[in-house]
Amino acid sequence: MSLIGNIDLPALEESLRYRFLHKGLLLQAYVHPSYQKHSGGCYQKQNLEFLGDAVLEYLITSYLYSVYPDLKPGQLTDLRSITVNNCSFVLIAVKRSFHLYLLQDSSGLTQAVNKFVNFVQSTDSEREQFEETAFPKVLGDIVESSIGAILLDSGFNLKLVWEIMLKLLDPVLSFSSLQLNPVRELRELCQYKNFDLQFPDPVKISGGFSVRIEIHASDNLLSFSATNHSSKAARRMAAQEALCKMRALGYRHKSKSLEEIVQSSRKKEAQLIGYDEQCVVIDYNDFIHAENLVLSESTNQDSV
């Protein structure tokens, strides 16, 4: 049985906005190491993830450098750290529904992916009821492996991959929801104002945890609390409430936040910096063709 029938390749290509000449590359980009029903290798074995990660870092660096010419090196580095990371790519994978095409044989991985997808697709009020939800690394991996596969299939046409990247990562590159962790932001504000910030130990209650935050601001004692199934989530909720209250009282950091800096900065058209080479010729005989990828029996146990 051909492996090519296990993925709706036309639909996936439509999501990627690219038609593959060599379908086997696209298939391999979505095969997880736990999937042992074929002998064609996975995205890790074929180095597609490695290649995609490397080219995305270069392309995103080029984007930030050309779009935000007035930002300082440290600010550009912060933006790149926010953009070029697995968490950002995981969110892109869910938004583009790439998780629907993943080939894997791990019940634990299936559960983790489904839980995260439900979390992302829920409303803000519903998310507060979720326990601490981990970002499944595999979803970010397939975004990187997809880019790696496109780069190989196109003969290292970096200009083409650049155009695809701009459309694929638009939700991340727009920085529409740029925000620091509220706990970190609260710490920085209190340090700047020289306020005493205390995080008493979480209290176990029925169905979760109760977390309290205390701030000794001048002669005032401010206290904030929140409850959640997860103590970490409860702490973030309490920190967010504390930040809102502190701002309402006029307590703000002297420096602009990264979000404010990005929103107020001059923006220019995105450019691919330093690329004017011709596409190279690739020997595709070294790649496994889609029709040669077949299913086989496996007794391997589930792995995440």
From TrEMBL:
SMART domains cross-referenced by the UniProt entry: RIBOc (SM00535)
RNase III domain boundaries: 9-155
Keyword set includes Cytoplasm: no
Gene Ontology CC entries for this record: cytoplasm; nucleus
Top-rank lineage group of the source organism: Eukaryota
InterPro entries for this protein: dsRBD_dom, RNase_III_dom, RNase_III_sf
UniProt xrefs under Pfam families: Ribonuclease_3
PROSITE patterns: DS_RBD (PS50137), RNASE_3_2 (PS50142)
Cofactor requirement: Mn(2+); Mg(2+)
CDD domains: RIBOc
GO biological process: siRNA processing
Record keywords, A-Z: Endonuclease, Hydrolase, Magnesium, Metal-binding, Nuclease, RNA-binding
Limits of the DRBM domain: 181-248
Molecular function per GO: metal ion binding; ribonuclease III activity; RNA binding
UniProt keyword annotation of Hydrolase present: yes
Descriptive protein name: Uncharacterized protein
Organism: Dioscorea zingiberensis
